[in-house]
Amino acid sequence: MGATQDIPTTTATTTATTTAPAPTASYASPSTPVAPEHTRSRAFLVGAILMCVVVSTVVMVGIIFSGWFKVPEPTTAIIIDGNASLDGTEIFVTGGNLKMPIDTLLHASNNYTTPILLEPGEYVLTATHNRRDLLKTRVIVRRFLGLRFNLDDYVDHPLTDTTITAEAAPTPPAPATRPSTPGNP
User: Fold this and answer.
1) Do 127 and 56 meet the contact criterion of CB atoms below 8 Å apart?
2) 38 Cβ partners below 8 Å, 6+ apart?
3) Could you give the CA distance from residue 79 to residue 114 in angstroms, rounded to a whole number?
4) Which is it for strands 159-165 and 121-129: parallel, antiparallel or unpaired?
5) Are strands 132-141 and 121-129 parallel, antiparallel or unpaired?
6) Are 120 and 99 in contact (CB under 8 A)?
């Protein structure tokens, strides 16, 4: 018989593992009834929050619009042109909705041209050079229609005590069209 050999024996150790139960949701499932007092109070809270958001938005928009209506926006201008010989000419504008008269000078730094932004209305425009009135006239400016004065024109012939109104430029007539004939496009 054959020889027998001793085979080492190993002891198997078994460990028992336990699994934790699956986590359960902390909220109530649809099949679980919710107390009616909680539903009503939550609905009231959500409604109150939404109402506050809507009201505060309307109030903020109202504040913005009221600020826009209080700010004056000039929509027209009077432009005064001159040259180097009129350096130091004083320009005064009074009347209209002005709280204080507008006072400006023609000089090299503004290239002897100055725009005066105004709201529509009636104003008195005065241009004085070396204590001599070159231009003193009442002007009526309309929305989006400005006036331009070239003071060179008034050095030899001052313009005083007149009224000038800004009017819309006449619209040009429509171009004449030729009727098309067959064979002549």
Assistant:
1) no
2) none
3) 6
4) unpaired
5) antiparallel
6) no
d(CA 14, CA 92): 107
d(CA 63, CA 72): 16
Phi, then psi, of 78 in degrees rounded to 5: -110, 125
Q: Are 129 and 89 in contact (CB under 8 A)?
A: yes
* pLDDT values of the chain reduced to their tens digit, one per residue, 185 residues: 555 666 666 555 555 555 655 555 555 556 666 666 667 788 888 999 999 999 999 999 999 988 888 877 788 899 999 998 899 999 999 998 888 999 999 999 999 999 999 998 999 999 999 888 888 889 998 888 888 999 888 887 776 666 677 665 444 444 445 445 555 55
pTM of the model: 0.54
With a CB cutoff of 8 Å and minimum separation 6, the contacts of 144 are: 75, 76
SS (H, E, C) the chain: CCCCCCCCCCCCCCCCCCCCCCCCCCCCCCCCCCCHHHHHHHHHHHHHHHHHHHHHHHHHHHHHHHHHHHCCCCCEEEEEECCHHHCCCEEEEEECCCCCCEEEECCHHHCCEEEEEECCEEEEEEEEECCEEEEEEEEEEECCECEEEEHHHHCCCCEEEEEEECCCCCCCCCCCCCCCECCEC
